[in-house]
Amino acid sequence: MRFELISNSRDAIVGMRLAGIVGTLVRTEEDAENALDAAVKKEDVAIILINEGLANMIPETVNKFKNNGGRPLIVVIPDGKSEGRAADSITNYINEAIGLKV
């Protein structure tokens, strides 16, 4: 099982590639939806990372896959254009990802 990144940032793609995570660079809303659909269909992908800017472009599609309760897990990650994060943002990520209050 592996991670896959969908991003509109070349820097994020390169940085994640250094960590061994394959990524898809997209520019348009249609490309983002197609990349997410393709990543979900891959049997060996366990976690899909999508940057916040793209998730905000296609919220219905992201929520459809996040709320299905199955594989793969969709995780929205901050991007370079994200507004400030709350002090407890890591705790919120854990709560959202696994439903556990920390």
| Continuous helix count | 5
SSE order, as H and E?
Answer: EHEHEHHEH
Give the rounded overall mean pLDDT.
Answer: 84
What's the N-to-C terminus distance? 27 Å
Question: What Rg, in angstroms, do the CA atoms define?
Answer: 13 Å
Widest sheet: strand ordering:
2-1-3-4
Largest sheet: number of strands, sense, barrel closure: 4 strands, parallel
Low-confidence stretches: none
| Beta-strand percent range | 15-25%
According to DSSP, the number of beta strands is: 4
Strand-pairing-aware structural class: alpha/beta
Percent helix among the residues? Answer: 40-55%
Form type: globular
Write up what this structure looks like.
The chain is of the alpha/beta class and 102 residues long. 45% of the residues lie in helices and 22% in strands. The chain has helices at 10-18, 29-41, 52-57, 59-66, 89-98, and strands spanning 2-7, 22-25, 45-51, 73-77. It has a four-stranded parallel β-sheet with strand order 2-1-3-4, with helices on both faces. Strand 1, helix 1 and strand 2 form a beta-alpha-beta unit. The longest helix has 13 residues, at 29-41. It is globular, with a radius of gyration of 13 Å. The model has no long low-confidence stretch (mean pLDDT 84).
